[in-house]
Queue: 2 jobs
Job 1
Amino acid sequence: MRWELLFGDLEAQWHEANQLDLERHVNELARVEASQLTLAEALRGSVGQQISLAMCNGTAFHGEVQRVEPQWILLSEDNRSVVLPLAKVSRVQGLGTQRARAASKIQYSLAAALRMLARNRSAVVLDLDTAHPASIRGVLDQVGADYVQLMQLADGVSRDRGNRQGNVVVPLGSLVSIVSAADNEF
């Protein structure tokens, strides 16, 4: 009887030690997996939900997450679409705990999103990463590998040739936000 109690106690201790080791191992694997998630995957878990993003220049955007790619996020904000480069995001509020990997192996760069706006000849407002908030309004004429060329327009006018105010080239790295009409396809 005493031997049975001793062996039973030893077996219970052994099972408890194995269970603790298993739990530690599972927790470590979960931490390792979480450490490999990107901001894009965290944001992708909030598609269809309202969030707020603060940008590096102090501008804040509040809207519904429509799409998330590795380099950018598309928000629907009131009656406009806002493309935000993830590299310029300084803070996110309203993000849930759900995470999601990309559903497609095809990833669209920020330049690809801007090419869609250029193809549609959509009027855009570019917010720039400068010491003082600066915006440029116009139509994207050309999207290169690391820059955009914008045909500047006067405020409140259409994009007729007579309303041009010149062209400006902006490096993609200087863009903080790209605001356009809500009816653009992405």
Note: Residues 1-36 form one domain.
Job 2
Amino acid sequence: MVWKTLESKILLDVSPFLRVRQERIEIRPNEVINDFYQVDLRSFALVVAVLENGNLLMIDQYKHGPRRKVLNFPGGFLEANERPEVAARRELQEETGLEPATLYPLGSFIDNGNQRGCMGHYFLAIGCRQTAAPNPGDLEDFSYVEMTKSEVGEALEMGRIGVIHHVAGWGLAQTKLAELAAL
């Protein structure tokens, strides 16, 4: 059975960054949860960037969620009414100055099965080459790290990729890279 929302009340709204709702949900006939909470966060695009030489470009940067420096793939929030592919290309260009020869969509996923969270749109960018100087914005302080595929795997095993969205992006990219290699 599909759950039915009987009532939804906004408890906190600091749009576009965060909205918290309390909902009354009917999960089965005559069975209601009166305080089911939903969290809405901004949608994002994440790009696993493969350079022309076959290496990957990652960003070594402090992230306040894990409260430490971690390795990330380029990415960021979608602007209002922006298509995910447009956001992926924009974020890749802004953060790295790279342009891909080919951009493959890898899927779109909600990050929390019950509370929702955010929608992540994942992409694999092949044949990336420098076409402009990076313009990451004033809040970004990071360094670029060029890595082989095995080095990315080692970084994951060592806990250096500390945000699940980037772990997911790497897993999705590996599947697509294997598919492309088999052609």
Note: Helices lie at 84-96, 149-157, 164-181.
